[in-house]
Write a structure and sequence with these properties.
Shape of chain B: elongated
Oligomer: heterodimer
Structural class of chain B: mainly alpha
Radius of gyration of chain A: 24 Å
Shape of chain A: elongated
Order of helices and strands of chain B: HHHHHHHHH
Number of helices of chain A: 12
Helix content of chain B: over 70%
Distance between the termini of chain B: 8 Å
Number of helices of chain B: 9
Number of strands of chain B: 0
Largest sheet of chain A: none
Distance between the termini of chain A: 20 Å
Number of strands of chain A: 0
Chain lengths: 285, 262
């Protein structure tokens, strides 16, 4: 019963956070310069007074509650509204791009995990952290995503999946190396090693179970980091994904598209918190 | 601890060198030498020129100083905000603490780059270069505090059960009088937060600039230089185009070195 109540509270809090994200995004875009500009204001046939009236009319008809009401109605219809920039339902814009971004994220995260896990297993086998083993990850962490993408474009080698994987692998490696290093030093693992238990058995029976909660947290962190890197990677590599769509929508004040993307992101990040000890933190907050 | 001193000296050396380069007579990051477009290194342009004939060394030096100054200022603001919010959440009662942590979670519910991009794009993009630089770093400061505030909140919560806190309460100290003693005890937590934020902000500015949302031209910035690189295939003519990227990585390594050693 206590667990159900805690889960309900967590769900209510997550829902409130997503609602606040929606409200914040709407207010931000509504007051962004150029949001209320009407193409008729550029038409020289309109007198200055008429243009002023058009601007006042636009400001009056686009109050925050009205925007929210319209957006909610369109969300309930299932099409997430109509894009101001492209004039098509937002769902039509997002669906194909979601598949592209999803594939990029899945491949990037998968590759990063494999690389980081292999490197961390090798690195943690040593007695002390070697500076030579840590250097590649440290170097990669110091490279901004945009710089890595630019480098790939300049040398005409590598692609979005590789960039995403390298960025994530560097972070994951640091975490996994530290976690594995301390796991190998656990008293029960030392005892098992002293008894001559095979390394494979040690990893599956003793190391992996004790690392499971930390791996869950790392998975969540990987997703959030990958989502952050999505914008520069997709924009600079010209990948038609959600990140590129969000960037386009932000520059063109396309509120319906921006809201849909922001809600998707907020839901993804909030749900990924389920796999971390953060849910417990929320309980105590 | 072993690396801290050389890293600090190297960083200081870079700051002095960049200041000297920028303040040299005739050095200008806006002057265009139309006779030397995308030129390789020479006596008059030690690191070559960019696509508009501007001296790359002067621009890189100015970008380094601007980025560092902006990141340090933004980091100071964000750390101060985090200290205020975290302490208030820990000592301001249960409901206030809950409310402030929900606000933190709202900021943290969006990936950092999405949040930065959305807020920066909602602010004026066609403005003066100095104002665009101020807006960029203010946005970084305004959005960077929630993660630090959570860390400060946790640290401050631990202090509430410490022995000296029980003593101060037993001695009859309440409210602001207690906070006065709490802040110095949070310094070991705040100093790393401040140092960690600096490279993070330098990196965020570079990423934002590469998306065309950073500091406006002709003011030089790391992001602006990355943006320039990405848009001109003809830049492959000279290897000196990689100079800003290499220096940026070196600066970030040094800043992260300082943060880690601290």
């Amino acid at each position: 019963m206590k667990t159900v109540m805690a889960a309900m509270r967590w769900l209510a809090r997550s829902f409130a956070i997503v609602l606040l994200v929606v409200l914040g995004s709407t207010i931000l875009v509504r007051f962004a310069p150029g949001y209320l500009s009407d193409v008729r204001e550029m038409d020289s046939r309109y007198a200055p007074e008429a243009r002023s009236e058009l601007a006042i009319e636009a400001a009056r008809s686009r109050s925050i509650p009205q925007i929210l009401r319209e957006e909610t109605a369109q969300w309930l219809q299932g099409n997430f509204g109509v894009s101001r920039q492209f004039g098509v339902p937002v769902s039509d814009l997002i669906e194909p791009r979601l598949a592209v971004s999803g594939e990029l994220l899945a491949r990037g995260i998968g590759l990063a995990w494999i690389a980081a896990l292999c490197a961390a297993l090798l690195s943690s086998a040593g007695r002390n952290p070697s500076i030579f083993r840590q250097t590649p990850a440290t170097m990669l962490l110091a490279v901004p995503t945009a710089a890595l993408v630019t480098f790939c474009l300049l040398v005409n080698s590598g692609g979005p999946v590789l960039v995403m994987a390298l960025l994530l692998a560097a972070r994951d490696f640091k975490f996994l190396d530290r976690a594995l290093r301390s796991a190998w030093q656990e008293p029960h693992v030392l005892q098992a090693r002293a008894q001559g238990i095979h390394t494979g058995r040690l990893l599956t029976a003793h190391i992996a179970p004790s690392l499971a909660p930390q791996l869950g947290a790392l998975a969540s962190l990987s997703l959030v980091t990958a989502l952050s890197a999505l914008v520069p990677v997709e924009v600079l590599f010209n990948v038609p994904g959600v990140g590129q769509l969000a960037w386009n929508a932000a520059l063109n004040r396309d509120l319906p598209v921006l809201l849909a993307v922001m809600i998707l992101m907020a839901v993804a990040v909030t749900c990924s918190g389920m796999a971390t000890p953060r849910a417990a933190e929320w309980e105590s907050a | 601890m072993k690396l801290r001193r050389p890293v600090l000296w190297l960083l200081l050396g870079l700051i002095v060198a960049a200041s000297l380069i920028v303040s040299m007579p005739g050095a200008s990051y806006v002057h265009q030498d139309r006779e030397a477009i995308l030129a390789a290194a020479s006596a008059s342009h030690p690191a070559g020129t960019d696509a508009l004939g501007r001296d790359r060394l002067v621009r890189v030096a100015a970008a380094f100083l601007l980025s560092l100054a902006g990141a340090v200022a933004a980091s100071a603001l964000t750390t101060a905000a985090a200290a205020g919010v975290g302490t208030l959440a820990a000592f301001g009662g249960r409901s206030l603490g809950w409310g402030l942590m929900v606000v933190c979670d709202v900021f943290l519910a969006l990936p950092w780059m999405f949040l930065l991009m959305m807020v920066r794009s909602a602010l004026p993009l066609t403005t003066s270069p100095a104002r665009s630089a101020a807006i960029t770093f203010l946005v970084l400061a305004a959005l960077g505090w929630p993660a630090s505030a959570r860390a400060v909140y946790r640290g401050a919560r631990q202090l509430t059960t410490s022995d000296w806190m029980l003593h101060t309460r037993a001695a009859g100290l309440r409210g602001p009088s207690v906070i006065r003693y709490v802040i110095p005890n949070l310094f070991p937590l705040l100093v790393p937060q401040f140092l960690i934020s600096i490279p993070a902000f330098v990196m965020a500015e570079a990423n934002l600039g590469a998306l065309g949302l950073g500091v406006g031209e002709p003011l030089p910035s790391w992001g602006g230089m990355l943006f320039e690189l990405n848009n001109s295939p003809m830049l492959l003519q000279t290897r000196w185009v990689c100079f800003p990227v290499i220096l940026l990585v070196l600066v970030l390594l040094l800043l992260e070195g300082v943060a880690v050693e601290a």
